[in-house]
Design a protein that fits this description.
This is Secreted protein. This protein is mainly β. The chain has helices at about 60-70, 75-80, 90-95, 105-110, 125; strands spanning about 5, 15, 50-55, 85, 100-105, 115-120, 140-145, 150-155, 160-170, 175-180, 190, 195-200, 205-210, 215, 230, 235-240, 245-255, 270-275, 285, 300-305, 315-320, 325-330, 335-340, 345-350, 355, 360, 365-370, 375, 380-385, 395-400.
């Protein structure tokens, strides 16, 4: 099949017609440009669809919240009283493969059907030295609960963890407050001080590790009244959570609107995200979860350094995905891993590389039930994911030699 290419969106980016994909060579020696040969692939992927622009300014409510609430660092919240202890015995019910590294949540968090874990990222994504201030090495997990989102900070060394409520700051009647964030939070990516959370219909929400508030140590804060969030009668609440983390910014698609289902064209449905520190510069990776009867999903990358600015951010690479029902994906040293869900059955791990003619032969391996987002922990050559289903729930990692 003949392919035609039109140069768009900057150097190294092209939109390929006739069933191929947006391509640009990633900045690694191992990775070749990817095209898509699947009949379900987008007929014409336009780089313009993936241009990001910064969202609404939130500096005014954030500034007031900083004046009224006491901030906490990551190390402090991991050391403070009230942490949950990791459980045991979750590997077998979750169908975790042998020889995996496994952490279990406590009985309550393993069994709950209200909160569902989704995204995973680690300190290895955040820093080159894979260690945060105070010497901690956290793993982060996002959860959604029909209208709320929490972020779990896991301390593997102490086998404890802490939930932090994510909130959206705003001005209301001339005063700063905040509200719940009603998104799926299907993927998270920690890079430097920033935490990026996937927002399926809008793009990426941005949070800052320096903007975490401890309500129990704030005169204007309260950990009571679980039904309350935001400012009520002069006090700030967070559904009973001790810590709240307000959104500091966002990145939205500059052109078009995200559809209610996969279309194969237009802005990306931001189902999952990850970090690739093996490219130069480092990359933010995002992809779509698309059902079998929908057009095949797409995967796109952007330069993380560009997200530090305020101008439009253009994609650096993209392609149609090699399969449907992709729940998470990560790239390191040119190799890709994807998780694929199968409803009540155990999931599949897909491994492949892009080539000049499409994806190379996909290797498949049966893994846990409900596998979700992926994150490469470079120093330990392991890739983390989380099994989402109640009573089949586990935070676990498998060995991956090229995750380095």
């Amino acid at each position: 099949m003949q392919r035609t290419a039109a140069r768009l969106g900057g150097p190294g980016v092209a939109a390929l017609a006739a069933g191929a994909a947006l391509v640009a060579a990633p900045a690694t020696a191992q990775a070749a440009p990817a095209t898509t040969v699947s009949a379900k692939a987008p007929a014409d992927v336009n780089p313009r669809d993936f241009v990001l622009r910064r969202g609404a300014d939130r500096s005014t409510p954030l500034r007031e919240l900083n004046g009224r609430l006491r901030r906490s660092g990551v190390d402090a919240l991991l050391r403070a009283s009230g942490r949950a202890r990791m459980g045991r015995g979750c590997a077998k019910p979750a169908g975790v493969p042998a020889h995996s590294l496994v952490y279990c949540f406590n009985k309550k968090d393993t069994a709950t059907r209200s909160w569902v874990p989704q995204g995973v990222t680690t300190v290895s994504d955040a820093t080159a030295g894979e260690r945060w201030a105070g010497g901690v090495r956290p793993i982060l997990v996002s959860w959604h609960d029909s209208g709320k989102v929490r972020l779990t900070f896991v301390d593997p060394g102490r086998r404890t963890y802490r939930h932090v409520l994510l909130v959206a700051p705003k001005m209301e009647h001339g005063r700063a407050t905040y509200s719940d964030i009603g998104i799926h939070a299907g993927g998270i990516a920690w890079y430097g001080e920033k935490v990026y959370v996937a927002d399926t219909r809008h793009g990426v929400r941005e949070f800052d590790m320096r903007e975490i508030f401890d309500l129990s140590r704030s005169r204007a804060g309260s950990t009571g009244h679980p039904g309350r969030v935001g400012l009520h009668h002069g006090k700030y609440y967070g559904h009973g959570f001790r810590y709240v983390m307000p959104q500091t910014s966002s990145w939205e698609f500059a052109h078009g609107r995200v559809g209610a289902r996969c279309r194969g064209t237009g802005p990306l449905r931001m189902s999952w995200i990850s970090v690739d520190r093996t490219t130069s510069p480092h990359s933010l990776v995002a992809g779509e979860y698309c059902r079998p009867k929908w057009p095949r999903g797409r995967v796109v990358t952007w330069r993380l350094a560009a997200l530090a600015g305020g101008g439009p951010v253009r994609p650096s690479w993209g392609a149609g995905l090699p399969a449907d029902r992709i729940q998470g994906g990560v790239r390191t040293n040119g190799r890709w891993w994807f998780t694929q869900s199968h409803s009540g059955k155990r999931g599949t791990l897909l491994t492949t590389r892009p080539t000049s003619r499409g994806w190379s032969k996909v290797k498949r391996r049966t893994i846990s039930y409900g596998p979700e987002d992926l994150s490469c922990y470079r120093g330990r050559h392991r890739i983390w994911t989380v099994a989402e289903h109640a009573n089949r729930r586990a935070l676990w990692a498998f060995r991956a030699r090229s995750c380095s």
